[in-house]
Design goal:
6 helices, NAD(P)-bd_dom, two-stranded parallel ribbon, alpha/beta, globular, Sugar epimerase YhfK, about 220 residues, Rossmann fold, nine-stranded mixed β-sheet
């Protein structure tokens, strides 16, 4: 069973990822949390947690024994530029470096649609720039990676059907479906070293991932 560190485990999407992994026969989740007060949530789920902050510099204890990483942290588009840079760019880069040093086998990044053209979205420009820099750093890091860039996230019930491509029209996708996409991307052959956008669609997640893997 592979041990998966979820960065941003306490967020809305992170908690969904934890639930999926916790019911998996292949993966064991480890929740990375910023505050001790968050630990009981994961204790109740019988999920291991590690205390670490993206604004710190040492992640060796958080990555001990970890096989793969899902980065689902995000400051959100409404956070100021300084905090966004600290979490979405610098924090991501620190954990990418630490993952490389720790011998992590795959790094799955939750990015954002529009990260390839931040200036086209003025209200989110600082957020998308930070995401773009982190994505670029991951692609050049030498780690095996998958970068998922979803459209606008909703709390609707996931239908398990998506549209994936390097570029798709702007649209929405449920956090449930994004969580499943990220978890399924952990499989070694799927979406290896691929960056793609995702919105709700008509194709089952698994077959859509297989298709994008072969593209």
């Amino acid at each position: 069973m592979e041990k998966i560190l979820i960065v941003g485990a306490n967020g809305s999407t992170g908690k969904r990822i934890i639930e999926i992994l916790n019911n998996s026969q292949s993966f064991e989740p480890v929740a990375m949390i910023r505050k001790k007060e968050q630990k009981p949530v994961f204790d109740d789920m019988d999920v291991e947690s590690v205390l670490a902050d993206l604004e710190q510099d040492d992640f060796s204890s958080a990555l001990k024994g970890v096989d793969k990483v899902i980065f689902a942290a995000g400051s959100g588009g409404h956070t100021g530029p300084d905090k966004t840079t600290a979490v979405d760019e610098e924090g991501a880069i620190k954990i990418i470096d630490a993952s490389l040093k720790a011998g992590v086998k795959k790094f799955v990044m939750l990015s954002a649609m529009g990260a390839d053209e931040p200036s086209s979205h003025k209200e989110l420009e600082h957020y998308l720039k930070a995401k773009a820099e982190a994505d670029k750093y991951l692609r050049n890091s030498g780690l095996n990676y998958t970068i998922v860039r979803p459209g606008a996230l909703t709390d609707d019930l996931g239908m398990g059907k998506v549209k994936l491509a390097e570029k798709v029209e702007r649209g929405e996708i449920s956090r449930d479906d994004v969580a499943f996409l990220l978890v399924m991307s952990l499989a070694d052959p799927l979406a290896k070293n691929k960056t793609f956008e995702a919105i709700e669609g008509d194709e089952p997640i698994k077959s859509a991932l297989i298709e994008i893997s072969q593209g």
